Each structure stands twice: as structure tokens, then as C-alpha cells.
């Protein structure tokens, strides 16, 4: 897409505490959009990497120094005064206590209880993405059995699972409807989100939170389905581009590593996974042959988290 003015490269920090509160700051007087709330950050300077710029900006604005930050999404946004490319990082560890070195106000917020206003428009998709947990589970009743699947689900929900996809290719009709209904009811009792693979009508009928499209569905669509949460499976740059164009809420990309379910499929590997999502504007889950201990590495590569079909249901 062409832009009438040069892109201004900007870094932004999503500073997240262990209790999932994140930090917003108000823009000081004398700057465009003074009084608006935003994620802290600023313009990159010549010769700086994005992470170097972010560390400098957080020291200048908040008096803190980054200890652990993960690259996240990049988004282009056009304001009246400039077109900016925002490099978002999730900052999960830092030294010092944040304070407004430029006399800006600070506020720790949560996605479910946002109490400051007005917000800079570019931040709304980021807040939406923050509602997605880092672990995305995929049901596996075809291997575990239906009752065992429900038992494993109860255990995982009690241990904090908040997001799952119902994907049961060997079930159909009333049997699938029964199992999906059971899963949705149990998950919603724990305030967990549930999406159903490929079946938009079933998702609406059972009150699921959305749908997860196959890559074939994704490539055939001209507009995003009208559901609360819409994800899609991607395997290459073309599918990622289509997901961004349609405004998907998230995608999974894989297989990253060889998988039991698709032994003949060539794995991307972590290097290609990282390269494919480097400029992506959506949250991307790594998928394929992963276990929960792979999460930290996936975050380092720019992933939003990991999606799992088997390890998430394994007794720990």
C-alpha cells in the first residue's frame, strides 16, 4: 500500500505485570493528541534497532530499563500529522519503578476493565489482541476419546486454560454438536473462550465465541465472517497477507516442527516462522510439534504464543 508521506518508525512498549495489568501513559502538553492515552514509546533514531530505541525511550519517559522484551506486532497507522509504523514489544521484566519523567500521567489497566479515556486510535487493535492468551489449545477427542477429552479439559481449565479450538474432523452431526456444546458450557464456566473449526453456523448455534477458518476457507473469502473472534490457519506469506487484509483477529502459522498428525508435511522451522511474521500486524500462534516449554522461544521469535493439539492435554 502506498503512503502519501514517509513512514515514521515508532516503537511502543506493552509493559505487562505478572497480574496481567499493562501500563498506559497520557501524552504530555505540547505534543499532538495531548491528553490521549497510549502505550509508551517514541520515534526511532538513526542507527538504532527497534529494541535499542525502546530501551532509550523507556528510560527517558519512565525511568525504567528493559530486562526482558518480546517483539510482537507491527501496525501502520495514518494520523492527520503523520503516517507511523508502530513496532510493538511486550515488556515483561524491567528494572526500576515507572514514573512520569515528562509529567505524563500513568495508569495500570486491564483489558476487561479499561478506565482511562480517550485512547489513541492506533491502540485499539492492540488492546483487542491483548485479550488473547499465549496458549491456544486444540481439542483431540479423536485420539483421547470424548469422555477423556472432557476430563482433560476440566483439568486444563482448572489450571488456567483460557482459549481453545474445537477441531474434531472425525465427528459430525449430533455427535459433534453434543461434544461441542459440552466443551463450550464447561469452558464458559471458567470464562474461557471457545472457537469452532470451520463451521460458522454451528459456532453461532451453540453460542461459541467465534470460528477458526481453514486456510482454504481463508483464501476463498472476500470479507471477514461476522463473529466475535475469527482466527485462521496459515502456512505461507500469501495466507498471512490474506488474513491481514480481511482483518482476522489472530492466526496460527505452521507446522513449525514435524508433527505426528502430518508426518509428510515439510516443517517451516523457527527461522522461517520468524521471518514470515516479522512485519505481521496480527497476533500469530506457532503451531506444529510444540510443547509448553517451547512458549518462551516462540515469544522470542515474535509469536503471540503457541497452539497445541497434544501436549496441552498431557498430565503434568
Automatic annotation (TrEMBL):
- What's an example of a GO molecular-function annotation for this chain? 8-oxo-7,8-dihydroguanosine triphosphate pyrophosphatase activity
> Under what name is this protein listed?
8-oxo-dGTP diphosphatase
Which GO terms of type biological process are on file?
Answer: DNA repair; DNA replication; thiamine biosynthetic process
Belongs to which family? Answer: Belongs to the Nudix hydrolase family.
Q: EC number(s) in its UniProt entry?
A: 3.6.1.55
Needed co-factor(s): Mg(2+)
Domain Nudix hydrolase stretches? 6-134
* Keyword vocabulary terms for this entry: DNA damage, DNA repair, DNA replication, Hydrolase, Magnesium, Metal-binding, Mutator protein
Q: Name the catalysed reactions.
A: 8-oxo-GTP + H2O = 8-oxo-GMP + diphosphate + H(+); 8-oxo-dGTP + H2O = 8-oxo-dGMP + diphosphate + H(+)
Stored InterPro entries: Aldolase_TIM, MutT-like, Nudix_hydrolase, NUDIX_hydrolase-like_dom_sf, NUDIX_hydrolase_CS, NUDIX_hydrolase_dom, ThiamineP_synth_sf, ThiamineP_synth_TenI
Enumerate the CDD domains for this protein.
Answer: NUDIX_MutT_NudA_like, TMP_TenI
SUPFAM superfamilies given in the database record: Nudix, Thiamin phosphate synthase
Amino acid at each position: 500500500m502506498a503512503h502519501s508521506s514517509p513512514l515514521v518508525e515508532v516503537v511502543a512498549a506493552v509493559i505487562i505485570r505478572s497480574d496481567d495489568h499493562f501500563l498506559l501513559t497520557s501524552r504530555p502538553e505540547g505534543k499532538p493528541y495531548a491528553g490521549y492515552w497510549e502505550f509508551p514509546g517514541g520515534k526511532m533514531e538513526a542507527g538504532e534497532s527497534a529494541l535499542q530505541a525502546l530501551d532509550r525511550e523507556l528510560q527517558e519517559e519512565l525511568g525504567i530499563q528493559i530486562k526482558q522484551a518480546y517483539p510482537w506486532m507491527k501496525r501502520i497507522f495514518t494520523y492527520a500529522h503523520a503516517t507511523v509504523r508502530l513496532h510493538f514489544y511486550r515488556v515483561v521484566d524491567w528494572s526500576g519503578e515507572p514514573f512520569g519523567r515528562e509529567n505524563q500521567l500513568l495508569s495500570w489497566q486491564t483489558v476487561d476493565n479499561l478506565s482511562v479515556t480517550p485512547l489513541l486510535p492506533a491502540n485499539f487493535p492492540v488492546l483487542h489482541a491483548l485479550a488473547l492468551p499465549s496458549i491456544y489449545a486444540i481439542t483431540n477427542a479423536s485420539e483421547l476419546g470424548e469422555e477423556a477429552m472432557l476430563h482433560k479439559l476440566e483439568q486444563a481449565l482448572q489450571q488456567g486454560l483460557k482459549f481453545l479450538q474445537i477441531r474434531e474432523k472425525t465427528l459430525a452431526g449430533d455427535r459433534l454438536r453434543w461434544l461441542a456444546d459440552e466443551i463450550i458450557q464447561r469452558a464458559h464456566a471458567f470464562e474461557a473462550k471457545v472457537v469452532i473449526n470451520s463451521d460458522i453456523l454451528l459456532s453461532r448455534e451453540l453460542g461459541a465465541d467465534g470460528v477458526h477458518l481453514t486456510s482454504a476457507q481463508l483464501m476463498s473469502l472476500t470479507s471477514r465472517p461476522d463473529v466475535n473472534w475469527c482466527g485462521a490457519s496459515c502456512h505461507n506469506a500469501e495466507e498471512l497477507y490474506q488474513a491481514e487484509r480481511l482483518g482476522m483477529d489472530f492466526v496460527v502459522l505452521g507446522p513449525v516442527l514435524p508433527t505426528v498428525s502430518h508426518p509428510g508435511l515439510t516443517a517451516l522451522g523457527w527461522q522461517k516462522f520468524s521471518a514470515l511474521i516479522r512485519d505481521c500486524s496480527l497476533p500469530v500462534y506457532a503451531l506444529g510439534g510444540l510443547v509448553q516449554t517451547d512458549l518462551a522461544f516462540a515469544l522470542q521469535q515474535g509469536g503471540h504464543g503457541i497452539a497445541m493439539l497434544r501436549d496441552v492435554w498431557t498430565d503434568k
